[in-house]
Specification:
Number of helices: 4
Number of strands: 3
Strand order of the largest sheet: 1-2-3
Strand content: 5-15%
């Protein structure tokens, strides 16, 4: 299956805007701005970067695991510390830091997030 889409961007990075379109009709002239991508709640960024985080941590873990099994004995304790650090780092980022930021209402730029009642009142 061949996938194609078009994106048109007008203006500079932060104040510009764009439109996304896919031939399948799933995306038709969808508005896209810097704010919709980067200034939304932090969990959107976590969801977006989740795949790359998993791939990066898995690749690093497998490379370090290879060093653990096939590397010289001199670096075994260092490799063990690296493996432990990878596991703790991924766990703390995904299951402690991100939910804590969402709970506190922190956005990607550290400003307060509008609550659902405030959004309803504004509408």
């Amino acid at each position: 299956m061949e996938r194609k889409a078009t994106a048109v961007w007008n203006g500079d990075l932060k104040s510009g805007n764009g439109k996304l379109t896919a031939p399948s009709g799933v995306l038709k002239e969808i508005d896209y701005t810097f704010a919709t991508r980067f200034e939304s709640r932090i969990h959107c960024a976590v969801e977006t970067l989740g795949g790359s985080t998993v791939i990066t941590s898995t690749t690093t873990f497998l490379a370090t695991l290879g060093l653990f099994f096939f590397g010289p004995e001199v670096i075994q304790s260092f490799v063990q510390a690296m493996l432990f650090g990878i596991i703790v780092g991924v766990y703390s980022s995904a299951f402690i830091a991100a939910p804590l930021l969402i709970y506190l209402g922190v956005t990607t730029y550290g400003t307060e997030t509008e609550t659902s009642s405030e959004a309803k009142a504004r509408a």
